[in-house]
Design brief:
HARBI1-like; alpha/beta; metal ion binding; two-stranded antiparallel ribbon; 17 helices
């Protein structure tokens, strides 16, 4: 290398041979990048222009005053679009995260861990990812490697299953809080889009199975059981406290759910503040409107004792008034033997909805305890979880009874206690005085079926 000080004291310049070697190296790098970027997609004219520009850049390098000018010119050529470029790996932020890394390990020993964290088998998880992927594909940018669909779905499931805050849960998946919030929102929308018919009243063969199962319990042509649960939330900002204060003096949102005897959710309605009574929630839900116009109860009609005809109905508690499609207990402390027997049988059979709440809240603990939430998408999130609930039932994924025990609360003796299902005490049962004769006749006819 020549010791040519030039205008800058202490500076040095390349010899002609070194310049030639540097030019050859830069040309090789440029052509390699051009190949990687698939020059086949470019027209011959575009390619010629690029090569000419590269050659000009290299000629400039030969005449540059210093060694550091060559890489500077090359980077300028790339940024200016003279040479094709691929995503610069040194800009990509690598994603890490202990829980996600452990979930990604595919071996038999990790299956229990996988089920514990995401509440499902790897096979079911892969099916859900495949169904949701078209709705959550992310675009590769020059600044960040996008989270893949399986990563996004896994995080949303973990958030719902663990109930952890965004601040706590996102670090385990190698993402920031804002990415975690977006992931839950994207997965919620993807599940609703991928499984639009997964929550629906039964039809066809499934309808026959449901009707037969309830008939074996003494309730022919019954399609399900209805009840409400409460999701506890931190008080929404700017919302009047009395609106969300339920009868247990907690802030909550009411969820109305209908299930069949397999605990499959066939209808869900979310969103009313905790102060609203179950009967009012029903009156304002689409369920009532669809039932009244005959869109739901479409089983083959049967004739019960007394000539009572029915094409279907639900079992409910005394939070509802008797209707021609909702059968509630008689209630009261002093009743005849047959009425007492009917009320006991009705309560036992409709208890399936409480077991469904136990499975839903035991598995998806975000909805078990108080938590900060976006009130705008809470109904969609819970509906998405109900869809997953149905998918797991269909896949035969087991439910661990330990999930029915609260991991935090203890009784006075220090023993574990059952989880809070969010049910409200019926301190004020709905009056049956205004029930129609047809509604009361249906209940009487069913009572005479019970033996």
């Amino acid at each position: 290398m020549e010791d040519d000080i030039g205008d800058a004291p202490g500076a040095w310049r390349l010899t002609p041979r070194e310049r030639s070697l540097l030019g050859t190296t830069l040309l090789a790098v440029a052509r390699h990048m051009q190949t990687v970027n698939d020059v086949g997609q470019a027209s011959g004219r575009q390619t010629s222009r690029r090569e000419a520009a590269i050659a000009q850049a290299l000629m400039d390098v030969h005449s540059s005053p210093g060694l550091w000018d060559a890489p500077f010119l090359l980077s300028n050529a790339i940024v200016a679009g003279v040479m094709p470029r691929e995503t610069p790996r040194w800009w990509v932020k690598r994603r890490t995260g202990g829980t996600w890394r452990d979930l990604s390990i595919a071996n038999d020993a990790s299956e229990d861990y996988f089920h514990d964290k995401l509440r499902m088998t790897r096979t079911v998880f892969n099916d859900i990812v495949a169904a949701c992927s078209p709705f959550i594909q992310r675009r590769l940018t020059h600044y960040r490697e996008p989270l893949q669909p399986d990563h996004i779905v896994a995080y949303a499931l973990y958030r719902w299953a663990s109930g952890e805050t965004f601040e706590s849960s996102t670090s385990s998946f190698g993402m920031g809080k804002s990415s975690g919030i977006k992931a839950v929102d994207h997965v919620t929308k993807a599940i609703l889009a991928a499984y639009p018919e997964k929550i629906a009243f039964p039809t066809g063969r499934r309808l026959l199975q449901v009707v037969r199962a309830f008939g074996d319990k003494g309730f022919p042509n019954c399609l399900g059981a209805i009840d409400c649960t409460h999701i506890y939330v931190d008080k929404p900002p700017n919302a009047p406290s009395e609106n969300y204060f339920d009868r247990k003096q907690q802030f909550s949102i009411v969820v109305q759910v209908v299930v069949d005897l397999d605990m499959r959710v066939v209808d869900v309605f979310v969103g009313y503040p905790g102060c609203v009574h179950d009967a009012r929630v029903l009156r304002n839900s689409s369920l009532l409107r669809r039932a009244e116009v005959g869109d739901i109860f479409t089983a083959d009609p049967i004739i019960l004792r007394g000539g009572v005809r029915t094409t279907g109905y639900l079992l409910g508690d005394n939070g509802y008034a008797p209707r021609t499609w909702i059968v509630v207990p008689y209630g009261g402390s002093e009743q005849t033997r047959d009425i007492t027997l009917f009320d006991m049988r009705q309560k036992t059979t409709r208890g399936v909805v409480e077991r469904a709440f136990g499975r839903l809240k035991g598995m998806w603990r975000l909805f078990l305890r108080h938590h900060k939430t976006n009130m705008n998408n809470l109904p969609q999130q819970f509906t998405a979880v109900c869809i997953i609930h149905n998918l797991l039932l269909e896949a035969g994924v087991p439910f661990g009874e330990r999930l029915l025990l609260d991991p935090v609360d203890r009784d006075r003796e220090g023993n574990t206690v059952p989880i809070n299902l969010g049910l409200q005490d019926l301190s004020q049962p709905v009056s049956q005085a205004d029930a129609t004769e047809a509604a009361l006749a249906l209940r009487d006819a069913l009572r005479m079926q019970i033996r």
